[in-house]
Amino acid sequence: MMKAGGWEAFIEVGDAYRRIGEVAATGEPFDAKAREIYLLALSQARRQECVQCLLRIAEAFAALGDREHIELSVRLADLLAAQDPEAEADVRAFTMRFADQLLDRASGREERRQVP
Question: Is the separation of the CB atoms in 75 and 39 below 8 Å?
Fold first, then answer.
């Protein structure tokens, strides 16, 4: 069940658009809508000052291959984590994990685009 107005609800809706785009003939309109919704989630999480929320949103942008917004989400999480060693460690771990994911995802998207 979705919480009305929470960042989690935005992520759920954005993820649904992205999944539809994965099976549609052309996913671009669905990816664009998912990105728009993830930006709403980013705004909510930023207001809540939630490091874990921002990292989850960065993962959502990673699923789209949206490097600009991944970096923004991680940068915001890093700023919030500055006074919390555990949160800083979470941001570092995410950044290391994300580096590998981005390379894998970018190559996967390129391969998918080349298939007729």
Answer: no
Picking from 32, 33, 57, 59, the residue whose alpha carbon sits closest to that of residue 44 is 57
Q: What is the CATH number of domain 7-114?
A: 1.25.40
CA 28, 6, 56: angle at the middle one, nearest 5?
60
- What is the pTM (predicted TM-score) of this model? 0.79
Would you kindly state where each structural domain of the chain is located, as residue ranges? Answer: 7-114
**Distance of alpha carbon 5 from alpha carbon 32, whole angstroms:** 20
Using the structure block, give the residue that is written with the tokens 């669905």.
Answer: 30
Q: For the chain, which ranges sit under pLDDT 70?
A: 1-5, 100-116
Contacts of 4 (CB under 8 A, 6+ apart): none
